[in-house]
Specification:
By secondary structure, the protein is an alpha+beta fold. The chain contains six helices and six strands; from the N terminus they run αααβββαββαβα. It starts with a helix and ends in a 7-residue tail after the last helix.
Length: about 170
């Protein structure tokens, strides 16, 4: 494995780790010396990744986000309200997906995090270039929603439910 590939893998491991990873563990995992890991960390930091060294190992200093998929149903007229509800409460609509009986899971990336993003998305839909993905499943669809905490996701879920958009699986 080349150094650039190893550093990408190290970043992935640190991003998904729930606790610090020791340099020794990384060295063993990649079959390199501890000194190579130290050099890799310096190069990773030089690429503007905030890696923290602790007495228990390395960790990446990144804001923690949680995600949850929510099944929803609404009309085309309610798309703006649904997405604004998500972003107004601190969520990001990462994607939209449907489970089609023939084609399986069809997914499209959204990354809608503000009212401006909602407006831009709706302009694209209303331009006639395409129709909403939810139309292939008679309005039923899912959003993967990201937020800063489970509490925020609970609040978003509760409000979508209050508005009648949330489906009970």
């Amino acid at each position: 494995m080349k150094g650039t590939e190893r550093r990408q893998e190290i970043l992935k491991m640190l991003t998904h780790a729930s606790s610090p990873i020791s340099g020794t563990a990384l060295a063993e995992h990649f079959s390199v010396s501890r000194q190579v890991i130290v050099q890799d960390m310096a190069l990773i930091r030089a690429e503007h990744h905030d890696i923290i060294s602790t007495n228990r190992g390395y960790l990446i200093n990144a804001p923690q986000r949680v995600t949850r998929a929510m099944k929803v149903f609404h009309s085309d007229e309610d798309m703006e309200d649904e997405l604004n509800t998500i972003v107004d409460l601190g969520g990001v609509a990462l994607d939209v997906f449907v489970r089609h009986r023939v084609y399986g899971c069809l997914r499209a990336e959204l990354n809608v995090s503000s009212r401006r993003d909602v407006k831009k998305f709706l302009e694209e839909i209303h331009s006639g270039k395409s129709t909403p993905l939810k139309d292939v499943t008679s309005g039923y669809h899912y959003h993967t929603i990201s937020a800063d905490s489970e509490d925020t996701l609970d609040l978003i879920e509760q409000e979508l439910n209050n508005k009648g958009y949330l489906c009970q699986n």
